[in-house]
Amino acid sequence: METENAVYEVEIVEGINLEKAEEIINGIEVLINNIISYNEKLFVTKPTIVITRFDIQTGSEFEDAYYVNNTVVATFDMLETYDLASCIIGAMSDVADPWLLYGISGSVLDVAVNENQLQTYYNNPDNLKTLDFFGARFIYSLNKDESAYAKQTAIAIYKYIENIYGIDSIISSDLQIQTRVTKDMKNEWLESIGVTHIYDSMYDGLFDGYRFTKKGEFDITIISPFAEYNIVMQEDERFLLTSIDNIELFLYKNLMGVTELKERLSASKYYDQLKVNDRIIYRADESNFVGGAYTEMDRGVVNLYSPDFESAHIHETAHFFFQDYFTPTAVFWYLQEGIACYLSSTGTNSYTYITDSSGNGLYDINRYIVYLMYENDFNGQSLYDVYGYKDAKILEQNFKDYYISHGGKNGPLEDFNRSLYADALSYAILKTYNHYLDFASNYPIAESYVTYLVNTYSLDHVIGANIDSESFEEIFGKPHGTIFGEWKDYLLNN
Prior knowledge:
alpha/beta, 4-stranded mixed sheet, about 500 residues, elongated, 19 helices, 6-stranded mixed sheet
């Protein structure tokens, strides 16, 4: 049905006949008329409003209304919600800032705001975080009563900005004029209600364009401009994803890491052949101990598990970009795992390491292995426990010789060199087992080998060989076996 205000599509299902569908449309029409009455300038584009059981994009169940461009999608259970009102305003107006959308929505619905409660709430500095990670704070199942503060905050900030800057600057179709809620505005508003704490978050404005909902068996689904995160929340504090704060931290690291990964790959002549523009699907469940992480190459889904949940996210994203070229051969294994290890190890370390919640610091499994070897005086126990190597004491002594002679330290995480760890372990395996590597096809060997290829030839050579491993000899000028031997000699003689 099309009305003066909107185009409607209502799914006819059990319990929803044509008469009921018309009743639903009439209810939404009342809401739209209230929005227009609040300020007719909010009505810029006639929206399409779809009321259905399943997400029209994924076919899955979903628990929060959303809009894309001027199309709103909601279920029958969302018809009288705050979220649906804000989505309709977003679809029909030029307002882009989520704080203002939710603020206008609450004002249209006449949601009460208690500034004294907000003052008390924000006088606790721990609650200032509500001001940066906007959408997720509205999900009651994750935030409980704090979600009410988030909604009141949006309304109060909107009304403050409208009073100071005027409604015309908020709904202007000129993006150069249109007001967006800045960090300074948030602090001005805090001061206006008597809060002395200063809001100064590195996350402020970082997650614009992210949508937060819930679907399927996951506790929260986050849809960003480049990825979809399906997350199972944890109660065990050993894990990272135990709170909204920690989700925020992970999303920050992932955003920074993927951005840098794309920037590094963009210098390659092969960049346009990689799947860098496809939306990455992450599934995160740290309670699943089937392995650190893996990418379903046929589906383009990145699964993140324990114990290497966070340190693997850039590694697996690299696999995602190269998914079209997966070839299960020995040569390709070294190239595929090697380039993923290389790109994650040589990135900005601050966002590729695991956050150890229980230790309140940063953690890396390889750094921890080095620490244990030093603590145990290189008696073989550490590498035996981790990898099950025979002759592990000799292996650790050989590791020690290479690691220390090349400047390796048992210092803080920030000083840990992951590439050196890969070289030292590869050297130790070659030295201990007389070049026999068939039993030890592990990631450090692949990383060391590809790092050698990058330093000796170029990253472009490695990318090209990953795209077409059968052309290895043509790309490098030598067969894999010859260069693999040169890599061994390089480690053993340097």
